[in-house]
Amino acid sequence: MTHEIFLLNISGQDKPGLTSGLTNVLAHYGAKVLDIGQANIHDTLSLGFLFEIESGPKSAAVLKDLLFKAYELGVKAKFTPISSENYEKWVGNQGKDRYIITILGEKLTAEQISKVTEVISDKNLNIDSIKRLTGRLSLTKKEDYPRASIQLSIRGKIDDKREFTKKFMQISHDLDVDIAFQEDNIYRRNRRLVCFDMDSTLIQAEVIDKLAELAGVGDEVKAITEAAMQGEIDFNESFIRRMKLLEGLSEDVLHDVAINLPITKGARRLIDTLKKYGFKTAILSGGFTYFGNYLQKELGIDYVYANELEIKNGKLTGNYIGAIVDGDKKAEYLQDIANKEGIDINQTIAVGDGANDLPMLSLAGLGIAFHAKPKVRNNAQSAISSIGLDGVLYLLGYHDRYIDLIE
Questions:
Q1: pLDDT for 53-69, tens place per residue?
Q2: Rounded to 5 degrees, what are φ and ψ at 11?
Q3: Would you name any one GO CC term (predicted)?
């Protein structure tokens, strides 16, 4: 007994009962569905069935009845015969490497998408699916926090991933858009721990600079901070120099600084969602435990590792207690937390902006440079520079409808 394979493409206005009506016809003739897929844009449907049917009377009858059912439902039907050789070649492609490309921005333009897909095409890669992750945008209502994201699932062999990423980075720079490139593996779909730098990542401030302003040494400390974040001087050296300049500052100012910390846009939305879906979270900071502990209570963070200020007689001594939390220490804490929670390092995410974050960004399964310095952005796996911290959720593949369920 021989069989034939057909691809049935349905297009038209979406309505209830389409899939049910068409599959009832296929079921009546004993057809075997080999693949099925659907997309819906502005209530306009594109639906596909790849099916196998017994040759002869059944084959002719099922095509006729499908055409009639499509007419009855008010949609268009197109049939394409598929040879067994073509089908087997298609099946053979399913073992190819798979990747996820996420495009993020306040809004997305045709030019941005065109340039990204051009790189994909030039490398002879297939786009299996394109999914919008953000909600629909109104053309008349002004958004308080505009954001747009789409996710492309691609398949094929990439010989030089560094070159591939470099091209995306150039597009990102030229067209003001974020492009994240990840392997689509089991770890990507099972992230369980997210670790944040604090200053200029979880909050939009460098706390040590604020303390320095109150101590009357703002300009001196800011210059040292910037040089350290750019990677121009060693973090430990910069930390010791800045601490000495804070000597004599009253302990009373710490509370006022803490309660006025500017939490980064999207941070609450991100952390609330992570908590809802069972993630562990941590602050790994070259800043101070006093402020990390405040944010831990405010946001519901699980772990805090930072530097402890030495305070005597109600004043900062200019010294610190314990080891300095530098870049290597952050990476060490990331690994320690993962071990404690029984989480594979590939299931972790690290987010930071400064040079001292690079060790943890490199160690984590996904390292994200957030509104970062050029050196950090150029050396991280992914970067977010166009929207808030909740952009991390789109790199995880979350759609707004799953995020906003908890708000």
A1: 999 999 999 999 999 99
A2: -140, 150
A3: cytoplasm
